[in-house]
Amino acid sequence: MSTIDELSDLPKYTIKAVASQTGIRPVTLRAWERRHEILTPHRSENQYRLYSDRDIAILRWLKNRVDNGISISNAAAEFRAMVNQQLWPEAIPSLPERRTGGQAHSPNWYASQLTTALMQHDEQTSATLLREAHALFDLMTVFMDILVPSLVEIGEAWYTGRIRVTTEHFASAFLRGKLLSLLQAYPIRRNAPYILLGCAPMEQHELGPLMIAVLLRSAGYRVEFLGPDLPIDDLVDYATYERPSMIVLSATSASSALEMKTMQQKLRKMRQAPLFGYGGRAFDLDPSLTRQVPGIYLGNTLEKATRKIKELLNQPEKRPA
Ligand code: B12
Which ligand 1 atom is at minimum distance from the Cα of 283? Predict the structure, then answer.
């Protein structure tokens, strides 16, 4: 199967032909073009729109996303983000075939193939698998059902001595790179709720909060990702000037988690204190830590964390002005 950019961009199909090939009504098609700037079909001499095979593949990809419950604006942003980082999705041959034909692999399959490719330091296959997974599944599925299980498996293999540290470092560096490009490819909406996200002091595990950053930015939030090992006082000082709506920190070890004990109190001294939320493996392993760290515990999965952050920021009475 080919990726969308490999298909011809020669203009040849009328809007009627495109509607019958994609199942998208002409009126919807024109609205998508106008509002989301995904396609600019050529015009024939008599000013009719003419679409290429590539245009049809883009529309099928977008329709697949919309049929899976994603808004067209998010699907369009996701598509632009992938293209900006040269991650063109695969062309979907036809929507019914994809849904019923049993050709597509499951997220489980992608997780295990990705783990194998990463363990073999096979960057090209890893990138291809990720690109296919992005074309087939929404971001949450790619993160929760492919990347997280793959990282857990790699962590276990490292812990039990089946792979060397170098291999684990290769895998996390590769995924970190892909996640950062994805984050940077989404548009930054300056007037959306503003969230600072990163790791507690001494904490190096940044992939969890980075995935949350991508999920929130893809949902239209203004997110700044600050990376590992953030000193609390410096962060509070920065927040005093930047005035985010929320700060979210992550901790894997109990010692890092406990470094966040003073965060809420320090933030409260600000005139318009941001919400403070946290989570990460430390709290999953020892829930009693949530009683020692003042602030809002955001849950033990990426999905719960993202949902909770959205809920909190959508309640104006809880949100600092
Ligand atoms: C990649 C990795 C590293 C990389 C990190 C690179 C990077 N740039 O992020 C490096 C090499 C730096 C590293 C270092 C270490 N690591 Co390490 N690492 C991992 C590995 C393989 C993956 C971690 C990961 O990103 N997971 C993906 C995230 C998304 O999954 P998760 O952490 O399970 O998160 C779940 C929830 O907690 C939640 N979530 C995640 N983040 C957040 C954030 C918020 C705000 C919320 C609300 C929720 C949330 O979502 C997930 C489920 O949906 C794990 C293996 C594993 N089982 O996870 C070991 C692992 C976490 N590391 C471990 C260890 C021991 C270490 C070191 C101490 C090793 C050493 N001796 O140096 C150091 C510590 C460094 C430090 N000071 O932080 C242990 C931790 C043991 C423990 N305490 O539980 C693990 C579990 C490996 C193992 N099997 O023993 N590591």
Answer: 37
Paired sense of beta strands 296-297 and 246-250, if any: unpaired
Domains and CATH numbers, the chain: 4-99 (1.10.1660.10), 107-184 (1.10.1240.10), 188-318 (3.40.50.280)
Answer whether 155 contacts ligand 1 (Cβ < 6 A). yes
Report the residue count for the chain.
321
148 alpha carbon – ligand 1 mean position (Å): 10
Q: Which atom of ligand 1 is nearest to the CA of 171?
A: 1
Closest CA to 234 of 281, 278, 266: 266
| Digit-coded pLDDT (tens) for 70-79 | 788 888 888 8
Picking from 67, 168, 185, the residue whose alpha carbon sits closest to that of residue 118 is 168
Q: pLDDT tens-digit profile of 199-233?
A: 999 999 999 999 999 999 988 899 999 999 999 99
Ligand 1 neighbourhood includes 60 CB (under 6 angstroms): no
- Which two structure tokens, joined as six digits, stand for 314? 């959508």
Q: Whose CA is nearest to atom 41 of ligand 1?
A: 208
Beta bridge partners of 297: 278
